[in-house]
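User: For a benchmark we're assembling, each entry needs the component sequences followed by a predicted structure for the full assembly. Here are entry 17's components. Please fill in the structure.
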Amino acid sequence: ILSSQHPPNSLNTLIEILPHFAQAEWLAVRSRLKREYLLQYNDPSCHGVMEDPALTRWTYARSANIYPNFRPTPKSSSLLGALFGIGPVLFWYYVFKTDRDRKEKLIREGKLD
Amino acid sequence: MLKFIIPTIMLMPLTWLSKNNFIWVNTTTHSLLISFTSLLLLNQFNDNSLNYSLTFFSDSLSAPLLMLTMWLLPLTLMASQSHLTKEPLTRKKLYITMLITLQTLLIMTFTATELIMFYITFESTLIPTLIIITRWGNQPERLNAGLYFLFYTLMGSLPLLVALTYLQNTLGSLNFLLLQYWAQPLPISWSNTLMWLAYMMAFLVKMPLYGLHLWLPKAHVEAPIAGSMVLAAVLLKLGGYGMLRITSILSPMTEHMAHPFLVLSLWGMIMTSSICLRQTDLKSLIAYSSVSHMALVITAALIQTPWSYMGATALMIAHGLTSSMLFCLANSNYERTHSRTMILARGLQIFLPLMTTWWLLACLANLALPPTINLIGELLVITSTFSWSNLTIILMAMNILITALYSLYMLITTQRGKHSHHINNLTPSFTREHTLMALHIIPLLLLSLNPKIILGFLY
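Assistant: Structure for entry 17:
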C-alpha cells in the first residue's frame, strides 16, 4: 500500500497505521449526525423537509459551485469537448451538405420529383 | 387591437386601487375575461391577415401565440399567489404590475405591423422579465442569471436594429404586410451574408440555438414561477415568431446560410436531451427540455417548407402550454420542500395522487404522445426534415427516444418509488394548484380535437 503510486501524505499514513482510530472518529461523526436527524424526525413541531447540508453541498457542487470541485483535465475537457461538441457538428455539417448538394443537383436536373 | 391593449393596461390601476384582500381575485378574474376576448382572433383566414389598423394586424401565425399569451396571464397570477404571501402589499402590487407590463408589451410584439415597433417591444420585454428574475428570484445566483439573460439577448438583437434601419432606408417602409410583396431575392455576397446573420442572430439567441443557450437554464431556474412560466411559454416563442416572419424576406439565401445553424440545432437537440438525463435539479431539467424542443422549431423554420412551418407553429403552442405546466408542477414541489432537487421529493404518488394525474399528463404531453398537438408538431417537423435530407431521421429518432427517456425519468423519480421518509408532513394540494394544472392541460387536450387553428399560415 505504501507504494510509489500513492505518495505518502499525513492523512494516508494515519489511516494505514491507525485504522481503529479512524474508524472510531467516523463512528463519532456518524452517530452525531444520526442523533440530530432522529431529533428532527421525531419532533412534532418540525414542519417541512429536514435540511441535509451534505445534499445542499452536493447540489451546489453539481450546479453552481463547480470550479472548486472540478478540475478540467485534457481528457475531461478537450477530448470530451472535441468528441461531443465540435466533432459531431463538423461531421454532420459535411454529411448534410453533401447530401443536400446531391439532392439539389438531382432536382435541377429533373431526376427527383 | 386596442380592445386587448387598453384593458390590459387598465389592469394596472386595478391592482393599485383594489382593496387588500381583493388584488389577486380582481386581477385574475379580469385577466381571464380579457383572455376570453382573444378568442375573437380565432376567425383566421389562411393567407390573409386581419388588419386592425395601420399599426396592428393578426394572422394565423400570430393569433394562436396571442391567445397563448393572454391565456397565460391569469395562470401566472394564480401561480404566484403562494410565494408572495409574505411580501408587503406594495411589493405584491409591483410584481403584478411587472407581469401586466410584460403582457402589454408581448401583445404589442405579436401584433406589430411595423418591424421597428416589433423590435422595440421585443427588446422592452426584457426589462420586466429582468426585474422579475433579479428581484423576486430565490437564490443568489439570480443576479448572474439576470446578467446572462439580459446581455445574451441584447447582444444578439443589436445587429437586428442595424439591419432593420438599413432595410428601411433601402425599401422605404418596414410595414410587414408590404414587405412580403416588395422583397426581392437576395443575391449571395459577403455583405448579404452579414445581413442574413444580423437578422437571424436575434431570434437564434432568443430561441435559443444550442451554442448560445447558456442563458436559458440559468434564467429559467432562478426565476420565480411566473417568470419561468412566461419565459418558457411566450418569450422563447418570440424568437420563433420572428424567425418565421423574417425568413420570408430573406430567401433564397437561407438555403445556403442555414446549414451551420441547422446542424447546430439538430445536434444540440440530442445534446440537451441527453443532459436532461443527468440533471438533479428539476427546473434545470425542464429548462434543457425547452432548449431541445425549441431546437426542433429552429430546424423547421430554417428548412422553409409548408409542412415544417405548420410543425413549427404547432410545436410552439404545444410546448408553451406543456412547459409552463411542467414549471407549475415543479413549483408545487418547490413550495413544499423549498429545494429544487428531484430526489428530495420523490414517490409523491402516495401523498398527492391527484397531482400525479397532472404530472402524468404533462410528462406524456412532453414526450409527444398521440393525439396531442405536441405529436402533430413533431411529426410534421420530422417528415419535412426527412424530405429535406434522408439522414436527419437518425438524429430525430434519437431525439424522440431520449425525450421519452427523460420525460419518463422525471415522472418516475417524482411520483413513483419509495418516498423519502421525511416528507410525511407535506401540505396537501390546494384547489388553486389543481385549477392551474387543469387550465393548462384542458386547452392542450382540446386543441388535439381541432389542431388546424394552430397550424399557422401555410395550412
